[in-house]
Amino acid sequence: MEKKHTRGSFTGSIGFVLAAAGSAVGLGNIWRFPYLAAKDGGGTFILVYIVLALTFGFTVLTTDIAIGRKTGQSPLVAYGKIHPGWNGLGLLASIVPVVILPYYCSIGGWVLKYLSVFLTGHGTAAAEDGYFTGYITGTWQPIVWLGIYLFLTAFVVYRGVNKGIENYSKILMPILLILIIGISIFSLTLTHTDADGVVRTGMKIYLVPNFKGMTLQKFFTVFVDALGQLFFSISVAMGIMVAYGSYVKKETNLMKSINQIEIFDTIVALLAGLMIVPAVFTFMGTEGMSAGPGLMFVSLPKVFQSMGAAGGVIGTIFFLMVSFAAITSSVSVMESIVSCMIDKFHISRKKSTVIVTV
Ligand code: PFF
Question: What is the CA radius of gyration of the chain?
Fold first, then answer.
């Protein structure tokens, strides 16, 4: 995105798909999607999400990437180049990552904290009721972990080694996917016994839409949650995909690549939900479904605990992979702010990374 330098480009469509998927797949898929799905009635949320992904998702992702490819510019300039009246859109899109970065780092900090807990063999403590609330209501710990996460993200951007990180994600992303599938299968073997003695799994709640008691107001909430989640998850309307688009060669088949990015992103989200939501139902019943942002952190340690001796190791690997997936995303968020500052104020990468971090 630095205009002074020659713009690089992805060597092939695979490089582009992997880079864009690295930005797209992150906490949005693994942490945010499952808690929204649980809160908004499982299958109903999923149905609305899939319809929106197939319509809005493909359209906005294609538009973002196409604007980038056509203009070959960073988002700050690209919109204005398509139409002079659209300059403001570029500015607006560039501000979104500024809002997202602190939010993302807070949750990234939670993941690092849980990684350290599992790494030091205290996974069973994390499975106890009240552990998560105790942690997030603490005064200093969440701030310290946020700081560590922010520092890691800033380090990658400061050194300009994003490409190196993306290379790792080629190996780590498939491992994460296999892990999520394995944990999902295990989660589905867990059952919940109702008050009347009926044994149930949470699979049905998660996958089958239930419109009983649906009001217009409730539907509106589900719709807005799903739409917001979609934009967040595929990283659109915030300049990032415009930037990736500007590196795509003219010969690359855009539609094919876009299909791959969106399908992969949606599959990871659906699987993460499968790993978390039925388990929440098993351990906490229907009341647990509205637990909100803590859902993954409350339910997964319980799943790992019920795996017995292997649970500690699997939990450690899981939180390690999630940390990587999160960092590849937050790096793309910070990179977008840093490169806009480089373009706009003509300052060095190092200086603008320090300013953004502070
Ligand atoms: N799409 C990423 C996720 O689902 O975790 C988060 C994200 C990355 C949001 C980049 C916004 C962004 F610009």
Answer: 21
